[in-house]
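fwd from M.: "can u put these together and see what the complex looks like"

so here's what she sent:
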Amino acid sequence: MADNVVTMRSIVKRFPGVLANDHVDFEARAGEIHALLGENGAGKTTLMNILYGIYQPDEGEIIIRGSPVTIPSPREAIKLGIGMVHQHFRLVETHTVAENIVLGLPGNFFNPARAARSKIREFSERYNLTVDPDARIWQLSAGEQQRVEVIKALYRGADILILDEPTSMLTPGEAEELFAVLRRMASEGKTIIFITHKLDEVMSISDRVTVLRQGRVEATLETAHTSKRELARLMVGREVLFRVERKDMPPGEEVLRIEDLHVLNDKGLPAVKGVSLSVARGEIVGIAGVAGNGQRELVEALVGLRRAEGGRVSVNGREITNQPPKVVIEHGVCYVPGERLTGLVPEMSVAENLILKGYRHQRFCRGPFLDARAIYEHADALIEQYCIMTPSRDTPLKLLSGGNIQRVVLARETCESPDVLIAAHPTSGLDVGAIEYIWQLLLAERERGMAILLVSEDLEEVLALSDRIAVMFEGEFMGVVPAHEVDLEEIGLMMAGAHRRPLDSSSPERGTPPVREVSA
Amino acid sequence: MRRIVSIEVEKRLAPPRWLQILAPVLSLLLALSAIGIIFLLVGVDPFFAYSEIFQGAFGSVYGLSETVVKSIPLMLCGVGLTLAFRARFWNIGAEGQLLIGATCATALALAYPEWPKAVLLSAMFLVGFVGGALWGLIPAILKARWRVDETITSLMMVYIASNLVKYLVYGPWKGPEERGFPYTSKFSPSAQLPRLAWTRIHYPTLLLALALAVVVYVLIRYTKWGYQIRVTGENPAAARYAGMSYLKTVILVMILSGGLAGVAGVGEVAGIHYRLRYPEGISPGYGFTAIIVAWLARLNPLGAVVTSLLLGGLLVGGDAIQVSLGLPSATVYVFNGAILLFVLAGDLIARYRIRLKSMELKEVS
Amino acid sequence: MREFLLTVFSLSTLQGAVRAGTPLLLGTLGEVYAERSGVLNLGVEGMMIMGSVTAFGVAYTTGNIWLAILLAALAGGLLALIHAFTSITLRVNQVVSGLAITMLGLGVSGILGKRYIGQPPGVRLGAINIPVLSDLPIIGPLFFRYDPMVYISILLVVVLWFVLYRTRWGLSLRSVGESPATADALGVNVVRVRYLAVFFGGMMAGVGGAYLSVVYAPAWIEGMTAGAGWIVIALTIFAMWDPVRALLGAYLFGGVRVLQYRLQDLGVSPPLLNMLPFIFTILVLWMSAGEAMRKHIGAPAALMQPYVREERG
């Protein structure tokens, strides 16, 4: 116990509808690199945000170097010697490196940045964190910006350094350099807490690893005494909520075809790197993966909300690459967005939300006018058919529960029996009843012959519903496999980038969509 | 122990209906009280001032008729602004669009004075509409195409328009027989709108304004374009998702919003002044006051008909106390400013919950 | 052409440009600080004219010019605090709030100033001749024969530039306007910085207005700012949020104001020249709309964005 620098005991943190941390115990020692492993939503970042004073725990206590503390804000955390490098850098882009490092610190009133330069150079040299103090942040690469963040923490006297998914923006080379820096710091007695979902990183850099799943600690292990396979199992778990009946059906003809698709993210960096896939009539293809590996960019490119830089998308043989959303909709592609707000107008009524896509159609219009009766009849029919619990069709959508709001979206998207349904995280944040309903609905649509592309972080969901599963990691598919041939553990390994299946061994040409998979 | 007290603003899920109606009324009363205090400070009895304003604006046939006269441009601009603000397009340049409308109509009136009355006046309304629309389209396209913030650009366009009018009336368009006044020559009779007997009410513009208010109301409420505008305003991401083009929506909105302001400008030159004058002579800030008209009407075009009468009355009443209480003409700006501020704050109170939050911090040792 | 150049660069024009530009400069310096903190203040016109009327009234009654300028600053600052409250605390639309403040200022100044119309100024701030230097040929009249406010405003340019780029305060200010979340996380009090910046902006606008009524005119005329506040808004963007460029811009547009009547004789229309700051403003905004360009120009990224601390759920 004595050498525990950080002790968090029985930490509970609730957000509306979510138990993010459920009596979490966590310890980290001086001089160790401690990995915090888990899927997205497992509660890793929440736990560390509590340690860094961004959130207050609902229950539990924090002990730093033997004394119990409350950490009401990052400022207090910094005073305790805790530093955090967020996944999205907290830097003022137009300022210089030195200005960013001294921002908010007492010290020289005049020329605070210049006065700090020698100390910055000192840290740079000591830890091999090369960066020009006078460069402006926006001129720096992601790796360099991260170095600024690390120096910023060190400059503030951090000897407990938290890094949240530090390699997500880095090239492999940059990641290696970072690891060397972290090892150096640990050898000097600093405590490094390393949040990740990548098993390779855990194995290569950490001394110990704590695995979180659904807000609970699964285990804390010495890295040397564990294996990727064990970690993968701990990380994804094997809890099954309920079983759904899934009819065996031969897949029909190909409907959605994606060929060698390349897409950039908001920062202009490659997010989808040459992905190919096909979805047939009556088939659900699941895309598993930790969020942030290019799923969002892929889906947005498919529905016309984001430009594809290369490759082709076609529906029923007609190309829809880079067509505006309106054209994509007209080709029978429906979309349940991952960010629920994207597909809804909360201030408007249930009936009005149900015609968000169909408002141009003949059936809802009389000339330029909206046909109120047709819209109401449509709303009444869907409210009944999809069991939407709402006081009335005129109720503003924002007053409905999450599950019912999602039913509204699904009702709108599936009622026209489109050819293709793209559903991103359709059940995230919903309760068990709502999840079951949506699963049944998706399976029913499959039986009706729809081609469904299901993007989900929830492995249970992907396994329960899909005919085939593609695992996405850093913008590529780690493999496309028939669902009945894989288990949770293998998918867990693929999600963590630790295992790759040949895309299609029958065809050597990479990028051809697999027609039939051969298991490795 | 430290204690932090802060004001927290959080969104209400569903503002109660009574609050939505009560908030602007209450804001108005609070604004009037605040102005009353200013009056007291300069030694004017506020109750007397208010009764004078009311008498001046609504207490006589002349006052009433002038109230209607002033409400015409306010109504046209205000109705247009309800549409723009519904799409969350912050057009604050109605004043400039009005001036350009007046300018375009004047160009036609001066160029073709011999055209028959009906033809010339219709054409003037048309070019005024087009001029205002084009002026409004500049910030719209800058916003939709390059994401340039529309508030400042539309405001800057006001001062460009105002200088353009100055240039014309001091320069090339200056009437030769105007003895150095910055006016154009008087319009020929066929470019002059008819007025209601004994008043300055140029009723064709008034009827046009009322009709357009109904048209805009129907457009927003009952058409697919209106639906598109409402969705774009409430949630631009959802609009894009549903395949609506932001560019097209904003262009439609600004053609109408700018065009209506342009029509207001035509009404002023063809119905009141019969000439183009220096900008402050054409409009004492109708385009800006119309922002209050739209806001007070809770962005309802039919409501804007009522609120434009209210603010038109305030303009007339302001003139009245100028005479009876010896207050300067700028007094009416106090009303505009205070009402706008309180309505803004009141709107916030209706939609948000505001509370004082205090938090105790334990010192970290 | 020769005649044109002679007029433009005549000594009296240049002197006039500095005098006419000084109130614009004072207002712009304040607005640069307010916008650098992320708050757009469209109430400048109202704050300037409140400064004008306050300064004239105080000078008229007390005969103390410096007290007049000080109280004018306070009047502008108080009006700015209303804007700070509505836009920072209540987070209402900054544009509409600023417009309301301008209307309020125009109206209240009209009521308060009624009694001063046509009155002689109680006291005026005249030019000071700096000994020896002011007697030098050309250089003397060009640089050393202004009233003290001209020198104070130039000094302020230097000081404000230094504070903005070379001190801890300036660093906090710029950070709050660029990335309030980052500044907040590092312990900068975003709300306090913004309040102070807006208050300071209002004070500067008040002083700018005071310059008009007790130095430049000197007299009280209703609505005497005549759109100077809007030129300040334009100049702030034209100067790309920089105090030194604000100086150049202010004198440039001061020059345009001075030249109005002389240029007219030469066939250049003053209203067309007066359009320029507004056209330039739109051009600068257009250019800085692109992300890469914005970083070079330095438009505050968080301008007009109310800051709400991020909370999950």
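replying to her w this: The domain at 243-332+418-517 of chain A is CATH 3.40.50.300 (Rossmann fold).
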